[in-house]
Amino acid sequence: MFLTISTRGTAALPATDLGYLLHKHPDKAQKFSTSYGDAHVFYPQADAERCTAALLLEVDPLALVRRGKGKGKGRGGAPDAALAQYVNDRPYAASSLLAVALSAVFSSALRGVCAARPERAVEPLPLRVEVPALPARGGPDLVRALFEPLGWAVTAEPVALDSEFPEWGDSRYVRLALESEKLTLAEALRHLYVLLPVLDDAKHYWVSSDEVDKLLRAGDGWLAGHPEQKLITSRYLSRRWSLTRAATERLELARLAEADDSQVEAVDNAVEPDTEAEEKPAPLAVRRRDAIVEALRACGAARVLDLGCGQGQLVQELLKDARFTEVAGIDVSVRALTIAARRLKLDRMGERQAFRVKLFQGSLAYTDNRLKGYDAAVLSEVVEHLDLPRLPALEYAVFGHARPRTVLVTTPNVEYNVRWESLPAGHVRHGDHRFEWTREEFRTWAGAVAERHGYGVEFRPVGPDDPEVGPPTQMAVFTLRTHTNEKEAKAA
Ligand code: SAH
């Protein structure tokens, strides 16, 4: 199994920088042991103009069989399967084993980490990848359908079964060459890491649930929007339906969360049309954050959860006020969290500040013990991103399981949409909104949630409260009923 990665140098940047990016010195041939045999890395060419790194995996078919057995899963149950374990194409073809070797040998490069040339690691570079024998179920057409949407120019030539007998037709192998100038090395490696096994479609090891995490990690930033996402996910997870569904669901959430942020910004930052004030009114997003911070101060919360924190604007705002001793942001989107971490400069934060803030990935559709023990939780413009049938799951996770004393929920008031000049009639404010509620609908939902979980609830307008259609944003403030505040409520 063999794969090469090449780059061209420029006047300013020598091609041999590839050695830094791969963390493998061009002057040395290196050997690494993997569970399936030895992987070798060497450079057939390494000069300023052109540098090629080769990865060669010498598969040990016996190790392969032993591993398969050790895990209690042989390959197939057919009578000839015993022989097929020893006589198969595994040692020769680039396949999922090569992907495993790729991740073992180039793990830092896959993550885009390069201490010696950090600026180059995040820059696209001219790349050429060649795999002389790639098993490809689906043939050259599928190879193109998988790589082209990612910015690769693809050459995929079928390899004849036997060159002396062309009438026998093509084998299931293709000779693959990929070229791109638009990708970083890490992106390129992550494409290969996922797509080589997908094309091979014969995974050599048992697929467990952490494969979903591996797939989503390697697919971050490109898989969610890929036109063949379903095929990739299903094949990568060896068609295990439950895993595929879990992955698809998480990808869908990530995609939607990232879908066209510009739309939200446009509406959120729009200035209300009916203002008489002299100064420019604050954009709605700012007003919403102010309203939330004020409500949190009023309820005396110190430890606050921002559920569906997005890119961390509210977390940043809360950290400015020392009364909030702990602020945790949770989101399903890794991309949003990465942007949030950058916004908060988490890596450069002093120790005291860093103790106050936490960001973690999680889905609000599942109960999560990490959400317990906070004074207040905020769901700012989040509920409308969930499909209505998923809402009871979120309701239970927040009000039934985490149960903070205060919960703030904001959501658009759909009645107000007629006041947005830029919004075509009948449209929601963001492509990802699954619904937008009228004031009545929001009150009904919130009232029922409060009732089911022992909370009281009050409603507040955010933004100018239009006499006819109400405010652009509606906020519900839920307060857990305790014996004390129950008595106070009765007395009042
Ligand atoms: N709270 C922020 C962001 C709102 S956008 C603000 O007010 O500006 C909605 C956010 O909810 C997105 O970041 C999205 O990733 C997140 N989200 C959607 N469904 C989610 C789920 N099931 N679990 C966790 N976060 C989710």
Please, could you describe this protein's structure?
- Helix 4 packs antiparallel against helix 8 and helix 9 runs parallel beside helix 11.
- About 7% of the residues have low confidence.
- The protein has 2 domains: 238 residues, Hen1, N-terminal domain (c-terminal autoproteolytic domain of nucleoporin nup98), CATH 3.30.1610.20; 210 residues, 3-Layer(aba) Sandwich (Rossmann fold), CATH 3.40.50.150.
- With 492 residues, it is of the alpha/beta class.
- The termini are far apart.
- The chain has 19 helices and 14 strands.
- Bound molecules: S-adenosyl-L-homocysteine (SAH).
- The site of S-adenosyl-L-homocysteine has 17 residues, from helix 11.
Quickly count the domains: 2
Cross-sheet strand order for the largest sheet: 2-3-4-1-5-7-6
Low-confidence stretches: 68-81, 259-266, 269-279
Q: What would CATH call the architecture of the largest domain?
A: 2-Layer Sandwich
CATH topology of the largest domain: c-terminal autoproteolytic domain of nucleoporin nup98
| Ligand names | S-adenosyl-L-homocysteine
Q: Strand share of the residues?
A: 15-25%
Looking at the chains present, what oligomeric state does this protein adopt? Answer: single chain
Superfamily (CATH H level) name of the largest domain: Hen1, N-terminal domain
Give the integer mean of the pLDDT values.
83
Structural class: alpha/beta
**Strand segment tally:** 14
Shape: elongated
* Alpha-carbon Rg, integer: 27 Å
